[in-house]
């Protein structure tokens, strides 16, 4: 059982590497575009072969690179204000402690 699972995991990693998913961002974007063009006809062919009927796939207007860039900007802006916020919070903490001691 362990060997079968390990073999499947290894094969999945190999296929991902072979298709360019583990490469640069442009290679990953090209692989994603290729998968989006290839998968729907292949799935349709299999469903016709098996006699199944699947609901239509939803269309998403979602940009992975836009979301990634927004996340990077959010993290970087938080890191840029972290030192000043740390000073503010430290000053507030000392003030609170002094008020408790009085």
TrEMBL record:
It is a single-pass membrane protein. One of its GO terms (cellular component) is mitochondrial crista junction. Keywords: Membrane, Mitochondrion, Mitochondrion inner membrane, Transmembrane, Transmembrane helix. Its main location: mitochondrion. InterPro entries: Mic13 (IPR026769). It is found in: Mitochondrion inner membrane. GO terms for biological process: cristae formation. It holds the Pfam family QIL1. Component of the mitochondrial contact site and cristae organizing system (MICOS) complex. Component of the MICOS complex, a large protein complex of the mitochondrial inner membrane that plays crucial roles in the maintenance of crista junctions, inner membrane architecture, and formation of contact sites to the outer membrane. Belongs to the MICOS complex subunit Mic13 family. This is MICOS complex subunit MIC13. It comes from Cisticola juncidis. The gene is Mic13.
């Amino acid at each position: 059982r362990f060997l079968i699972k390990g073999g499947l995991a290894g094969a999945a990693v190999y296929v991902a590497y072979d298709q360019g998913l583990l490469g640069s961002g442009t290679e990953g974007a090209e692989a994603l575009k290729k998968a989006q063009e290839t998968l729907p006809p292949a799935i349709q062919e299999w469903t016709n072969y098996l006699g199944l009927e699947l609901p239509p796939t939803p269309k998403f207007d979602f940009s992975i690179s836009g979301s990634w860039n927004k996340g990077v900007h959010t993290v970087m802006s938080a890191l840029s204000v972290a030192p000043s916020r740390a000073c503010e919070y430290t000053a507030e903490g000392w003030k609170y402690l002094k008020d408790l001691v009085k």
